[in-house]
Amino acid sequence: MLCVQQLSVTGRRDDLLPPTSLEAARGELLLVEGPRQDQRTALALALTGRMRPSSGNIGWDGSGRIKALRQASNVVDSPGVNEPEQHLSVRDLVTEDLSLIPRRHRGALRSTPWLKLNNFEDIAGLWTEQLPAGRRVELLTALALADPDTGLLVMDSPDRHSGDASDWLPRLMELAHDAGRPLAVVATVTRIPDGWTGPAAVIGNAVPEPDETRPTETLLPETEDAK
């Protein structure tokens, strides 16, 4: 389980990530709303141990060690961080991503058999920029899960590729509810889709309330008797 309490990241001018608290259990999908892309990306990186928080606490499966969090998690399609470069073909992207899997799990993974085994042969010859939104999410999440150590999956702003939640929401729900591999799945989004009744949070939900303003004393004009 992922437990986050008042996690924040300080930027140069304002909070890159305002204080945020959330929980994501294995077997569930948590959607986290935030209007700013930089804040959504900062949260995605902080949740996976790839950005050091300025304050707050984060733990995974009872451990507060950042190294353990990083090894157990994967951030997917984060703009400016690990989103696929447009000039890459799907085949080259798969080759590149499989090479990043820890050697102890890599074995003889090769792009051609992996694409066939995971039913991506139909898009192997496309450029990544040509991928439909739904297939993009399917491909990138499958690559993230090629590492068997992954127990926490954080998808950064899947709705930026399509305003139709049906292009990405069913896939993330499928992964979260897979009984054969219980995952905690988190997606940062611009807006929670209409009709969503599952777990949800909002970036900045742990910002302290401002102190109540103390009532000011009303000054009455000085009378002649008081002089």
Can you describe what's shown?
The chain has 227 residues and is an alpha/beta fold. It has one domain: 3-Layer(aba) Sandwich (Rossmann fold). Helix content is 26%, strand content 22%. The chain contains 7 helices and 8 strands; from the N terminus they run βββαβαβααααβαββ. The strands form 2 sheets. The protein has a 5-stranded parallel beta sheet with strand order 5-6-7-3-8, with helices on both faces. Strands 2-1-4 form a 3-stranded antiparallel beta sheet. Strand 1 (2-10) and strand 2 (15-24) form a beta hairpin. The protein starts with a strand and ends in a 25-residue tail after the last strand. Mean pLDDT is 91; it is low at 216-223.
Secondary structure topology:
Elements: E1 2-10, E2 15-24, E3 28-33, H1 37-47, E4 55-60, H2 66-72, E5 73-76, H3 90-98, H4 103-106, H5 111-117, H6 133-144, E6 152-156, H7 169-176, E7 184-189, E8 200-202
Fraction of residues in H or I helices? 25-40%
**Percent of residues in beta strands:** 15-25%
Main sheet properties: 5 strands, parallel
Q: Can you tell me the CATH topology?
A: Rossmann fold
Strand order of the largest sheet: 5-6-7-3-8
Oligomer: single chain
Spell out the helices and strands N to C: EEEHEHEHHHHEHEE
Features:
Rossmann fold; alpha/beta; 3-stranded antiparallel β-sheet; 7 helices; 227 residues
Summarize the structure.
The chain is an alpha/beta fold and 227 residues long.
